[in-house]
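ok so for the tutorial part 2 we go from a plain amino acid sequence to predicted structure tokens. step 1 is just haveing the sequence, like this:
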Amino acid sequence: MQKLKAWYFGLQARERIMVSAGAVLVVITVLYLFVLSPFYGGLNARAERVAQKEADLAWIRSVAGDVMALSQDSPMPVAPSGESLVVLVDRAARECGLSSALTGQTPNGASGIRVRLERADFDKLVLCLANLQQSHAVSIESATIDRTSEPGFVNASLVLSRAPV
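step 2 — the prediction. this is what the tokens look like for a chain of 165 residues:
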């Protein structure tokens, strides 16, 4: 550090001004390149993301009335089925790719069933439950869903019921 000071003060006044101006220019350039530019880039990206989300929300609001009108005009068809809820749930689990996750079924009253799934793909589980509800009038009385250590997979305990046919 002493050598640098000695060199700097050994320069003529005009050279010291040039070296000082160059150092300030380098500091400003480094500050811009490594601090300000990434900051403003991230800020612009977030602003674009917010604008896209606002556009999505505006579109959802514009079609919400149409969706509500369509859902009220055409009730979901419920396929009458004489099969027991145990058989129906077992078949639905196989069709949805959840048969290996289905670890237990216990009747729960005259029109209900307790179902236990271990390490079930969450997306498949939700689709399967939606299908059961829409196509077979099966309702979910209670559900306990716990995540597992593997992302996307859950353990679930469900109580399902269906009005007698």
